[in-house]
Every structure is written in C-alpha cells, then in structure tokens.
Design goal:
Blueprint (H helix, E strand, L loop, with lengths): L6 E2 H8 L35 E3 L5 E3 L3 H7 L5 E3 L8 H8 L7 E3 L12 H4 L7 E3 L7 H10 L5 E3 L20 E3 L8 H10 L5 E3 L12 H7 L5 E3 L9 H6 L8 E3 L11 H11 L5 E2 L2 E2 L2 H15 L9 H10 L15 E8 L2 E8 L4 H12 L6 E6 L8 E2 L17 E6 L3
Parallel strand pairs: 1-3, 2-4, 4-5, 5-6, 6-7, 7-8, 8-9, 9-10, 10-11, 11-12, 14-18
Antiparallel strand pairs: 12-13, 14-15, 16-17, 16-18
Helix pairs in contact: 9-10, 10-11
Length: 425
C-alpha cells in the first residue's frame, strides 16, 4: 500500500518503533532506549530503538524535529532510508547531523538529483564509512563533494545511476576500499582508469553489468593505477571478447579474486573449459567466480592448458603456453579411454565334441541365453547347465546358476568360453 506523501523522518520513526509496532524484546542490542537528553519529549521513553534503523519505502520527504532526532538516535550506527521521497540534501543533512555515531547510510532510490549538495551539508556525513547511493542519479559533482567531506569513507555504492562517463575528483579519496558501480553504461576503459586515479587504495572494484570494452592500457599503467586492487568483478562485460583482455588482469600486482561470468569470450567453451583456461591464464588468482582455486586444481588446469594448445599453429599459441611448458615440460596427449560397458562378446560355445563361435548380447540374462542356445545344442532350457570359463581365470569354469543374472556381471569378454552340459537325472 502506498504511503502518504510529505511524512517526516521523526513521524515515521515514532510510528514504526512505537511499543505497539515494535514491542520490547530482550537480547543483545534490543530493548527500550531512553536517551539522557534532551528532556521534555513525551515520546522518548516509549520508543524501542535498535542501533540499526530500517525506514525504507515510508514516504519520507523531510527530517522533522531535529531535537527529537538527536534525543532518540544518539546510539544509532546504521540507517536505511532507501526508496523514500527525499529530494533535498538539506533535509538529509538535518537527519544525519543528529545521528553522531552513524557509520552506514543507505539513500538509494531517493530523487536527490533534484537538488545540489553543498559542502556545508556534506560535512554532516563526516563519520559515515559506508554510503549507498544506488539509483539516486547522483551527479559526479555530488559524489566529489561527498568525497571531500568524508575522510573515513571505505565503501561507496553508485549502481544504477546511468553513468556513461566518470568525472575525476579534484582530490584523491585515500580511504575508499570498495567501489560498487554495477549496472551503469561505462563502456570505455579510459573511464575506468579514472577510478584508479580517484581511489588509489581501492581493494575491491565491482563493475558487473556494464558494457565494458577491451582493456586498453599498458601493463605498467595498470599496475600504477590500481596498486592495491585485490578483487575485481567483470560479470557481463559485453565488450570483453579476446584473451588478451584476460591476460591484462595479471598486471594488477595484488589481484587474487576475479569474477568473469557472462562475457562473450567464454560463451563458446564448456563450463569445465572456461574455468580451467581462466585458472591457467591467471596464476595469482586464489578465487575464481566465488570458488577457491585449490593447488591441485591449479596444476590440473595448467596441464589442461598445455594439452589444449599443443596442436594449435605456433602463431596462435599464447605466451602462457610456453611458460607452462617450461614448468611441466611437453606433455603427451591424454589417452582416450572408452569406459562404456561392452554390449556384446564373441565366445566359444562348447557342447560335447562341438565348438561354435557365437556373438552374444551381454545385457541378457542366463535364462535368455539358454533360450538362445536351445536350437544350437538341442536341449531344453530345464535340462541345460551352463559353465563360463574366463580365458585368464586360474580357477576353472564357473557355473552360471542364477537364471535372472545378467551376463555382463560375469565380465564376459571376446574369446571366453561357455560350456553346455545336460542336467544329470
């Protein structure tokens, strides 16, 4: 049901966390919160506020009474205001400036692009370490203002903001470790390199669902731009279509985790081939597409890589092939072993002084074989005893006693013998 418009943060807070809607509960981090100051609020001893406030999709447009916010939210560390109707940064600032211990703030899907964020307002965000601006259509100018005023910002989420380019900030943000900028339209690598310039301490870069094209950057430049990058997510990068782009990832000096699903380059390979070829090409990676790469898997993949390319023309063989040949030597092709069970066998059927070579189906039972032999030995099935002799068995013939037993369970092979004898009355 749609919430009415024009509701304040404080109004929603009082409604949601009233004793009727959020009753007293015992346990860590729970219970009635009674702030020491300020005095005079008829509500302050009645609200049950956790340190994590979730007020998403509540129709909030403004802050409300700032003294009340300060009274109730002194202990709050996380605040989710996503999917509201906040369009004025001044109102956001009124809320945040009265939550002194706030570390996580989610402003996703608020129409904040309708106003300009001034530096004095952004200063109220100073203690925030994780900021989510997904689908807020925040301009790069807004992002730059935030970066200048948040000295401890560690994680920034800028997904679904329709970015086609990246605008460099006049100052670097040394504190940022994680940038989540998925589902935009960042196609050219020259835009991605700007992120390295702005965030030199970046540990994790999540670029999934962009239309990123080839990585046009020298190895030395990539190492300088992203010296601390440990993890990169390139899921569904529609423009990555050659192995040279994958090889470029080796230029990041600290990279150890890669996600690479849904890119055109890999579509023609089987799931097993994709994983092994990627592992072999990325020797420093310890986690691929969310799965740990064990030492045994790496060796198997590198040996697979050698055999995969050993029949390719010299001009098509990647440099990594020669590195691995130096490591393992030139390997022999794997023998092709057919593990399918044998369906028939040519055996010698012995009866009295007669020997007849026959091809018998191994999926049939002993009873079915007896019916097949009736016309050959001129005995009824009830008057027939069968003995199987494995040509390599040291113990002599084995009686085939059980009518319902399948012939393949005896391990019958070409050249074996079956003896038929009449049952003694």
């Amino acid at each position: 049901m749609d919430q009415p418009s024009g509701r304040s943060f404080m109004q929603v807070l009082c409604e949601k966390y009233s004793p009727e809607n959020f009753p007293y509960r015992r346990g860590p981090g729970m219970g009635v919160h009674v702030p020491a100051t300020p005095q005079g609020s008829p509500m302050k001893d009645r609200l049950n506020l956790p340190s994590v406030l979730v007020l998403n999709s509540c129709g909030i447009t403004c802050a409300g009474d700032e003294n009340e916010i300060a009274a109730f939210c002194a202990h709050v560390s996380e605040l989710d205001l996503s999917d509201n109707k906040l369009e004025d940064w001044h109102e956001v600032s009124k809320i945040v400036s009265n939550v002194p211990h706030l570390e996580f703030l989610n402003l996703s899907s608020n129409p904040l692009s309708l106003s300009v964020l001034e530096r004095r307002c952004a200063g109220s965000f100073a203690g925030v370490r994780k900021l989510v601006l997904n689908n807020s259509k925040a301009s790069w100018e807004t992002v730059h203002t935030i970066l200048q005023e948040l000295p401890d910002l560690e994680e920034l989420f800028l997904c679904l903001n329709d970015y086609e380019t990246v605008s460099c900030s006049p100052v670097c943000c040394q504190s940022l470790k994680l940038l989540h900028i998925t589902d935009n339209n960042l196609q050219d690598w020259t835009e991605i390199r700007k992120l390295g310039i702005m965030f030199p301490s970046l540990d994790t870069l999540i670029l999934a669902n962009n239309n990123l094209t080839t990585i046009e950057e020298s190895e030395d430049s990539l190492a300088r731009l992203f010296p601390n990058l440990r993890s990169i997510n390139l899921h569904k990068s529609a423009g990555l279509h050659c192995w040279e782009d994958i090889d470029k990832l080796n230029s990041f000096p600290k990279l150890e985790e890669v996600k690479l699903l849904g890119i055109p380059l890999l579509q023609s390979y089987t799931t097993e081939e994709r994983r092994k070829l990627l592992i072999a090409r990325l020797p420093s990676i310890i986690k691929l597409n969310g799965s740990i790469v064990a030492d045994g898997e790496r060796e198997d993949s590198e040996r697979f890589f050698i055999r995969y390319y050993m029949e390719f023309p010299e001009e098509e063989v990647p440099f990594r092939y020669h590195e691995l040949v130096t490591k393992y030597g030139k390997l022999e092709p794997l023998a092709v072993v057919d593990l399918r069970p044998q369906s028939s066998a040519k055996v010698e059927v012995h009866f009295q002084d007669k020997v007849e070579e026959m091809s018998i189906r191994l999926d049939q039972t002993v009873a079915e074989l007896k019916k097949h032999l009736k016309t050959v030995v001129q005995l009824s099935t009830s008057n027939m005893l069968l003995f199987y002799l494995d040509q390599e068995a040291p113990f002599g013939p084995e009686e085939m006693k059980y009518s319902s037993r399948a012939l393949h369970s005896y391990g019958i092979r070409d050249g074996d013998k079956i003896y038929v004898e009449p049952r003694m009355k």
